[in-house]
Write a structure and sequence with these properties.
Number of strands: 10
Radius of gyration: 19 Å
Distance between the termini: 64 Å
Largest sheet: 10 strands, antiparallel
Strand content: over 45%
Helix content: 10-25%
Structural class: alpha+beta
């Protein structure tokens, strides 16, 4: 039989591993049914709750990319209802030599704890995430345009 100290250590390691996996899933988000779309010129970003209510909205604008070949567009997300405390940002990023794959991400704070929120670009659901106990949710996903680059 194992000593109590070894059992406690084993439980601690298993718990830490489970928390690490849960955190990765929360950060990664859940892509909504293999989203295909071209969001390089998306105009609006919204974050909606599980009932489809718009919590945050923003308009995309070009920003400086990390390299000459990278295009980044960001939208500052602000609350829809007066007095709302939630804020966030959405981003679409792609390489000029590989425009058929875009990296889409969002992060929000101040949403209800454990709420499932979905990033919607120009009316199309892209990715969902579950907020943590502090009301923070973030997700990142690669989206294919469905077209091949020549």
């Amino acid at each position: 039989m194992k000593s109590p100290v070894k059992k406690i250590a084993a439980v601690g390691i298993a718990t830490a591993a489970a928390v690490g996996v849960a955190m990765m899933v929360g950060v990664e988000g859940q892509q909504t049914t293999s989203t295909i779309g071209d969001f390089r010129n998306a105009a609006t970003a919204e974050v909606r709750d599980a009932q489809g209510t718009v919590l945050l909205r923003g308009t995309f604008a070009a920003t400086a990319g990390d390299s000459d070949k990278e295009i980044e567009r960001k939208a500052a997300l602000t609350p829809i209802s007066a007095g709302g405390a939630a804020t966030g940002e959405a981003e679409v990023e792609y390489e000029t030599d590989k425009p058929d794959v875009q990296e889409v991400e969002f992060n929000v704070t101040g949403v209800p704890a454990r709420a499932i929120v979905t990033l919607v670009l120009d009316g199309k659901d892209v990715v969902s995430a579950t907020a943590n106990d502090q009301g923070v949710a973030e997700a990142e996903v690669n989206v294919n345009t469905g077209r091949r680059t020549p």
